[in-house]
């Protein structure tokens, strides 16, 4: 879990500074509204391997991002040793319209990542190439 948490924090920091990313939701980031709760309950500072972000271009670019991933596996489950990705608006919640998505807390631009134990350079390279392909 230590490696997963460390990798996820680096991914969140990387995405936060990326021009194609609208927002990042990860409690390990100091500006997260959930950061204080994470510090209270996760005394080791490991905020888990799950994060989400908003890709510029919404539903269409989110689907292109997912399709372009090479290392990160397209799966809707979470909590694996390998990195996984999901674009809920075109997978688990595809039957919902935009209003229903909003009610469910899912934006069309949201990509969910479950970060694994691969080398961080490989994870970031895959994310960057997929973001480039989604332009």
Describe what you observe in this structure.
This protein is α+β, with helices and mostly antiparallel strands and about 140 residues long. It has one domain: Aspartate Aminotransferase, domain 1. The protein has 5 helices and 5 strands; from the N terminus they run αβαβαββαβα. A 5-stranded mixed beta sheet has the order 1-2-5-4-3. Helix 3 crosses helix 5 (about 120-135).
Can you describe this structure in just a few lines?
With 135 residues, the protein is of the alpha+beta class. The protein has 5 helices and 5 strands.
Which features does this protein show?
135 residues; alpha+beta; Aspartate Aminotransferase, domain 1; five-stranded mixed β-sheet; 5 helices
Topology as a string of helices (H) and strands (E): HEHEHEEHEH
Largest sheet: 5 strands, mixed
Please give the count of helices: 5
Do you know the CATH topology? Answer: Aspartate Aminotransferase, domain 1
Number of domains: 1
Number of strands: 5
CATH class: Alpha Beta
Mind telling me the C-alpha Rg?
14 Å
Q: How do the strands line up in the largest sheet? A: 1-2-5-4-3
Average pLDDT for all residues: 92
Low-pLDDT runs: none
**Helical coverage, percent range:** 25-40%
SS content category: alpha+beta
Q: Quick one: CATH superfamily?
A: Aspartate Aminotransferase, domain 1
* Shape verdict: globular
CATH architecture: Alpha-Beta Complex
């Amino acid at each position: 879990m230590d490696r997963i948490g460390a990798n996820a924090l680096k991914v969140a920091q990387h995405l936060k500074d990326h021009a194609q990313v609208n927002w990042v939701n990860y409690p390990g980031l100091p500006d997260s509204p959930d950061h204080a709760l994470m510090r209270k309950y996760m005394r080791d500072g490991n905020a888990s391997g799950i994060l989400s972000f908003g890709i510029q271009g919404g539903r269409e670019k989110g689907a292109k991002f997912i399709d372009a991933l090479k290392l990160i596996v397209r799966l809707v489950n979470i909590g694996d040793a390998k990195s996984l990705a999901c674009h809920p608006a075109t997978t688990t919640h595809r039957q919902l319209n935009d209003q229903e998505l909003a009610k469910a807390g899912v934006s069309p631009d949201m990509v969910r990542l479950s970060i694994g134990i691969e080398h961080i350079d490989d994870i970031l390279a895959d994310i960057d190439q997929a973001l480039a392909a989604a332009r």
